[in-house]
Amino acid sequence: MYYQKKILLLLFIGILFTSFKLINRTEKFVETKVSELNDSSKSSMKDEINAIKKLIKNTHYNNKLCFLIDMRIESGKNRLFIYDFKSDKIIDEGLVAHGLGSETGITGKLKFSNTDNSLCTSLGKYSIGNSYYGKFGKAYKLYGLNKTNSNAYNRNIVLHKYYDVPYKEQEKNICNSYGCPMVNEIFYKRIEKIIDNSEKKIVMDIYY
């Protein structure tokens, strides 16, 4: 009886260990698709990256990576990019919603505003601040660094997740936010790890 119990215990420990290894392996080897950007998007991204490099040089901002959101890309396509300065490439990407007030009814054309209650997305560079728990769970305060987004904090513009934002790209546009960059819950988990593990504030750039 003693030996049977011992064997069962060893089998149980073995199953737990194997399961743990498989879970870790799954998380470690998750592959993310990186889009092929057109020449216009590549050029715009390059300009924004150079501007961010100048902004963060010799400052308290994270100089290893940044977040980029290209509003010229349709909302059904990946347009939030995590860019690594050292490798000089996109290391992750996902869908992100824009503000309801930014809709113009004209395909591919958006408007932007820094005004309170406009429900618009604001263009410009942001510093990603501390997290807090609110209506959408854990979210990150955003601080506008330009005249075009200087009211972001007062407008309660934050980076947050939302259950209705799809994970995969699609042909039609996705849901809208009230002006916040709003992402899928799975993608948000990856973003969350990057922000929380960063010793310095990360710059996020929304451009058009």
What does this structure look like?
The chain is of the alpha+beta class. The chain has three helices and nine strands, in the order H-H-E-E-E-E-E-E-E-E-H-E. Strands 3-2-1-9-5-6-7-8-4 form a nine-stranded mixed β-sheet, sandwiched between helices. The longest helix is centred in the first third of the chain and has 27 residues. The protein is globular. The termini are far apart. 31% of the residues are buried.
Provide the structure class.
Answer: alpha+beta
The strand count comes to 9
Which H/E pattern describes the elements?
HHEEEEEEEEHE
Distance between the ends: 72 Å
User: What is the alpha-carbon Rg in Å?
Assistant: 20 Å
Strands ordered across the widest β-sheet: 3-2-1-9-5-6-7-8-4
Instruction: Give the number of helices.
Output: 3
Choose one word for the global shape.
Answer: globular
Mean pLDDT: 88
Percent of residues in β-strands: 15-25%
> Biggest β-sheet: count, sense, barrel?
9 strands, mixed
Which parts are unreliable, with pLDDT below 50 for 5 consecutive residues or more?
Answer: 2-32
List keywords for this structure.
alpha+beta; single chain; 208 residues; 3 helices; disordered N terminus; nine-stranded mixed sheet; 24% strand; globular
Brief characterization of the structure:
The chain is an alpha+beta fold and 208 residues long. It has helices spanning 2-28, 39-56, 185-197, and strands at 65-70, 80-84, 89-94, 96-97, 124-134, 137-144, 158-161, 182-183, 203-207.
